[in-house]
Amino acid sequence: MYAVIKTGGKQYRVASGEKIKVEQIAADVGQEIVIDQVLAVGNGAELKVGTPLVSGATVKATVVAHGKHDKVHIFKMRRRKHYQKRQGHRQQFTELQIGVIAA
């Protein structure tokens, strides 16, 4: 069984037992969270698609860790104008262990 969930402005296809990295969620490590924004639930060849959400469907997940992704380097330059700008950014994430998918 799998589900398509929406969190942090992105969509993820998740199955029970998987680990995924999502945008940072304000929750403690070890805390169980319930994601109720489920867009679709599939079981084999059967697929249930919501309009826009599947009513009554939830996904339970446990917070495994918090961290930062690798650094993204931003480099801006205008040729022949003596302009160079360097910048960097590390996006924070929350790692989730997917538990029960309830349709």
UniProtKB/TrEMBL annotation:
InterPro entries: bL21-like (IPR028909), bL21-like_sf (IPR036164), Ribosomal_bL21 (IPR001787), Ribosomal_bL21_CS (IPR018258). It comes from the Bacteria. One of its GO terms (molecular function) is structural constituent of ribosome. Keywords: Ribonucleoprotein, Ribosomal protein, RNA-binding, rRNA-binding. GO terms for biological process: translation. GO terms for cellular component: cytoplasm; ribonucleoprotein complex; ribosome. Pfam families: Ribosomal_L21p. Part of the 50S ribosomal subunit. Contacts protein L20. HAMAP family: Ribosomal_bL21 (MF_01363). Belongs to the bacterial ribosomal protein bL21 family. This protein binds to 23S rRNA in the presence of protein L20. This is Large ribosomal subunit protein bL21. It comes from Acidovorax carolinensis. The gene is rplU.
